[in-house]
Structure formats: C-alpha cells, structure tokens
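Hey, I'm writing a tutorial for new members on how sequence and structure tokens pair up, and I'd like a real worked example in the thread rather than a made-up one. If someone can provide the structure for the chain below, I'll link this post from the tutorial.
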Amino acid sequence: MGRSFRADRIDKRILDALIDEPRASAMAIAQRTGLSRNTVQARLAKLEGEGTLESFQRRVDPAILGYPLRAFVLANVTQRKLAVVASALEAVPEVLEVQGLSGAVDLLIQVAARDADDLYRIAGQILEIDGIDRTATSLVMRNLVRYRITPLLAGLD
C-alpha cells in the first residue's frame, strides 16, 4: 500500500503476457507484445523493483499435501505486539497467509488442516500466541472466486 508507481498500457501488455505464460522469457514476451526486448527487460526490472511482481510460486492445493480443510481465523491482537504475533504466525506451518485488517478484527489468517481435530489444534495454537486476545474460526466450504488480476488489467485499456 502507498505505492506511487502506476502501471501503464505498456506494462499491461507485459503483464497480460506474463499471466498467460508465467515462465515466458523477456524475449518471448517481446515477441508476443511487439515490444523490444530491452523495453520488456527494463519494465520487468522496474515492476520487480517496485515490488509489483512477487516471487514466482505456483499455487498448490493444500489438499494434495494432506490438508483438505481450509479455514479463516479472525484474530484480535494487542497492537504493540503485532510484530511478535506476525513472527509467531509465520512459524506455524499450517498458516498459509495473514492479512492485517482495519475494523473490528485485526488479522485474517488463512490456515490449512488435515481434519477437524487438526483445525482445533491449529486454532488453539494461534490463540496461545502472546498478543492474540481473541479468535473466531470459519471453515471454507467452497472457493467461489479464485485470486485473479486480469479484470483489473482490462481497466488499463
């Protein structure tokens, strides 16, 4: 948040190509977009430098690793202990992602679990972290809209 960099139409062409072919080389992107290889490399370097392009990591369904249950744990924390809480959450292998929120709840913690008993253990482990005051857990029943960025890119036309 708070980034001043804004993608333009050239960036959009490069990002569209990367979304379609995430492992494409700069040369392949240049050929696909009609841009020069130097332009593509310079733009990719800028996007990476700005933190716009995160590390390349395939999204793996935790179910194939033996974690078919996913849940969101909503947590209220003691604000002055937020850094300690974040570090402790990072040490829990079943924690997939943590978002800091504004409003009535401070953290949205996505977890994966083997079964209901495992989820109970994980939720308890999270609640035991010094600085977490209260939690509420909601089980993911179905993923209705997967992470996507393409509709936002379409707005750059």
